[in-house]
Amino acid sequence: CVSKSLLTFDNSKGNSHVLRIYNSSGKMMKEITGINSNSIEINRSGLTSGIYMFSISNGTENLTSGKLTVL
Predict the structure, then answer these.
(1) 36, 41, 52, 67: most buried by Cβ count inside 10 Å?
(2) 23-66, pLDDT tens digit by residue?
(3) Which of 34, 36, 26, 37 is nearest to 65 (CA)?
(4) Do residues 42 and 51 make contact, with C-beta atoms less than 8 angstroms apart?
C-alpha cells in the first residue's frame, strides 16, 4: 500500500515551485520540481515513520515551510 499526502499552498500566479523534504538530521529525502499548480501529491514511499521538515521555494526564495508527520 502506497501512502500519499496532499499539500496545498497559494500559487495564484501559476509559478514553478520546488518541494524539498528533509529528515530530522537535515538530509534531503525527496525533491519534487516543476510544480505549477496549487497542490502537490506526495508519495510517502521511502519515508520511514517520523517527523520531516518541508520547504516550498520558487528557486530563489523560500515561500513556505512546515512539518510532515509520517506514521
Answers:
(1) 52
(2) 999 999 999 999 999 999 998 888 999 999 999 998 788 989 99
(3) 26
(4) no
